[in-house]
Amino acid sequence: MASAGMVDAQAVKGADTVGTDTCGWDGAKRVNGRKRHLVTDTLGLLVVVLVTAGSVQDRDGGRRVLARAKTAMPSMVVVWADGGYAGKLVAWVDTHCRIALDIVRKPKGQRGFAVLPHRWVIERTLSWLVRCRRLDHDYERLPHTRRRSSSGP
Fold first, then answer.
1. 106-141: pLDDT as tens digits
2. C-alpha–C-alpha distance, residues 67 and 49, integer Å
3. pTM of the model
4. What domains can you pick out in the chain, each with its CATH number?
5. Distance of alpha carbon 27 from alpha carbon 38, whole angstroms
6. Across-strand partners of 37?
7. Residues 6+ apart with CB under 8 A from 140
């Protein structure tokens, strides 16, 4: 049982076959598609995955995914997150989920890439997912499914 974890979200481009009713525009990443909200343990193993429209903010998806993580892993007492989860969500998670949400920020004056404590674990998990060709884009439908035209069968 894990007592600590990490939370993050990843925008995934939707293929042409993905229905527009379940997609959304993520303005920060400039991606039209869906978002994966993940909670992992300290080894980077998945605890909970939640898929939403790309337009859902990290904080809003964070509420839902962290509530599910506490149900799936009741022993979890601390979760590390990036700055996208800062604000009122920290108090909400503490009150409703009994989890301490710790925001890991970049050191002042840092430019470019640097490994951040605890956060590198979930970033590694996300990179493992993207390495899989079928998880790089959201295809939603099976390869043998054809789109029917509106003019006929």
1. 888 888 877 788 888 888 898 888 777 666 656 555
2. 12
3. 0.78
4. 4-136 (3.30.420)
5. 20
6. 9, 50
7. 14, 15, 17, 18, 19, 22
